[in-house]
Amino acid sequence: MEIFLQQLVNGLVVGSVYALVALGYTMVYGILGLINFAHGDLVMVGALTALQTMMFLMGVAPGMSPVAMLTLSLLVAIPVCMLLGFTMERLAYRRLRNAPRLAPLITAIGVSFLLQTLAMIIWGRNYHTFPQLISTTPVQPIEGVFVTPIQITIVIASAIIMAALILLVTKTKLGRAMRATAENHRVAALMGVDTNMIIALTFVIGAALAAIAGVMYASNYGIAHYGMGFMPGLKAFTAAVLGGIGNLGGAMLGGVVLGLVESFGAGYIEQMTFGFLNSSYQDIFAFIILGLVLIFKPTGLLGERVSDRA
Amino acid sequence: MHTNPLSPLLQLSGVQIAYGGIQAVKGIDLELYRGELVSLIGANGAGKTTTLNAIAGSLQLAHGEILYEGEKVKTLPAHKRLRRGIALVPEGRGIFTRLTVEENLRMGAYSRNDKAAIESDLERVYTMLPRIKERLAQVAGTLSGGEQQMVAIGRALLSRPKLLLLDEPSMGLAPLVVEKIFEVVQSVAKEGVTILLVEQNANLALEFSQRAYVMESGKITLSGTGADLLTNPKVRAAYLGEVDEAV
C-alpha cells in the first residue's frame, strides 16, 4: 500500500509537469496543425535561464531569500522563453504556413537541434546542479509515504496555472478568438481577428508554460543540462496525443495519466518482469502508450478531431 | 473620412484575381453607392465568390484596384477591412461549429469595445432572428442550415458594417427558409446598410435588388436595374430559365 501511494504521489508530480508541457504542444497543434518538436527544448531553455539567473543572484545578493530568488529567476526565464517562442513562429513557422505538412515538421526538428546546440555553446555539455530553493526534505503525511515540499508546490502551482488557462480560453474574448482561429483562420480574420497575432500569442503562452515546467522539472531532480528538454518533450507530446491532440483538457488529463502510468510502471516493473527489468526502464511505458493510442484510438481519450495532419 | 457622399462606397476597377494558376476574375469594374442593394448573379464558377472574397480581403488581387470610401484598400488584410466596415457572410456560412451560438454572434463584435452598444445590438439581432435566441447556449454545429445562415448574418451585423457582402445566403435551404432570410436581408438594407449580394437564384436576387451585375466566366457581361434584367431575354434564357427548372 505504501508503494502504491508513493507511486501515486510521484506520478502526480511528474504528470503535472508533463501536462504543462503537453498544453504547449496541443495549443499549437490546435491552431496550426503543427507538431512543434522544438517545444520540449523550451523546457530546457527555461531551466537553464533560471539557473543562470540564480547563479547571478547568488553572486550579487547572497543573502536573498530562496523564494525571492526563485520568483526572480522565473521572471527572467518566462520572458526569455516567450520571446524564443515568438521568434520561432515569426521566423520559421509563419513562412511555412501554406507549405506541405512535412516542411514545418522537419523545420521544427531543425529548430530543436538549433536550440540544443545554442544551449550547449552557452552552457556547455556538462550536467549542472540546479539549486533546490524549495525544500526537498520529505514529510510523511502517511507512514512510509514521502512527499517533499517542492513536489507539493509543483502539483499546486500546475493546477492553478491550468485552471487559469482554461478560464482564459473558455471565458475571455481573447480565448474565444483563439478558439475561432483554431477552427477557421479565414473566417476569424473576417470577424476582425488579427490571426497572426493570435497564433503568435499561442506560441508565447505555450512557451511560458514550458519555462515554468522547466524550472519545476529541474527543481525536482536538482539537475539541468542542454539536452534535458528532449525526453520530457517527447513524453509531453505523448501525453498530448493520449489526451487527444488539439484538446486542452486532453493534454492535462493525458499528462497526469502518463505520469501515473510511468510511475506505477517504474514501481512495479520488477515484479511484472520477475526481476528481468528494473525501474530504469520506466521510459518504455510512455512509448508503449503512444503506440497503443496511435493504433487503437488515434483521436485520444478526449479528442474528437481526427488528426489528418502530420 | 471626408469623401463625397455621392461618390461610390465601393469601386472595383480592372480587378483581376488568380489563384491556383487559374484566372478566376479577368478584369471587372463594379460600383456600389451608399444604401444600395446590388446583386451579382451568374452561373457556377463565374467568379462571383472570388470577387466577394477579394473585396473582403480573403484573396489578393493580381491586378486592379479596390476603392472603399475613396481609399485604396487592396493591401489591407481582411481583419483591417472589417474594422473599416466591410463584413462578409461567406459561402457555406463559415459558422464556428465548435463555438456556441452566442459565442459566434459575439465574434462578430470582436473588433468593437463599446460594451453597452454590443449588448443592445445583440438584443436587436435576437428580435430580428427570434429562433436564434432559443439556441444561444447550443454549439453552433448542431444548428440546421437555415439557423446557421441566420447566425452568420447576425454575426456579420454585430460588426456594424457599412458594406455587407452576402455570398449565396439561400444555398441549400428550403424555400420557406430562403424567404425568411431574404426578409432579414431586406430589413437590413432598409436600415441603410449597403449590400452586395451574390446569388445563383437569379430570380430571387433580381427581385430584391435595385441593380445587378451579371458575371460570366470571370467577366461582367451585363448590368442594369433589377427590373430591367428580369425582363432581359438574354438573362431569362441564360439564368432564370435554368433556375426555374432547378427549383
Automatic annotation (TrEMBL), chain A:
Keywords, in A-Z order: Amino-acid transport, Cell inner membrane, Cell membrane, Membrane, Transmembrane, Transmembrane helix, Transport
Location(s) in or outside the cell: Cell membrane
Transmembrane segments: 12-35, 42-61, 67-86, 102-124, 144-169, 198-217, 237-261, 273-296
A Pfam family assignment: BPD_transp_2
Source domain of life: Bacteria
Record's bilayer topology term: Multi-pass membrane protein
Coiled-coil residue spans: none
Database matches in PANTHER family: BRANCHED-CHAIN AMINO ACID TRANSPORT SYSTEM PERMEASE PROTEIN LIVH, HIGH-AFFINITY BRANCHED-CHAIN AMINO ACID TRANSPORT SYSTEM PERMEASE PROTEIN LIVH
Family indicated by similarity: Belongs to the binding-protein-dependent transport system permease family. LivHM subfamily.
Designated name of the protein: Branched-chain amino acid ABC transporter permease
Organism annotation: Aromatoleum diolicum
UniProtKB/TrEMBL annotation, chain B:
Family annotation (InterPro entries): AAA+_ATPase, ABC_branched_ATPase_LivF/BraG, ABC_transporter-like_ATP-bd, ABC_transporter-like_CS, BCAA_Transport_ATP-bd_LivF, P-loop_NTPase
Keywords: Amino-acid transport, ATP-binding, Cell membrane, Membrane, Nucleotide-binding, Transport
Methyltransferase as UniProt keyword: no
Pfam families referenced in this protein's UniProt entry, alphabetically: ABC_tran
MF GO annotations: ATP binding
Segments forming domain ABC transporter: 10-242
Protein family membership: Belongs to the ABC transporter superfamily.
Protein name: ATP-binding cassette domain-containing protein
Protein's organism: Aromatoleum diolicum
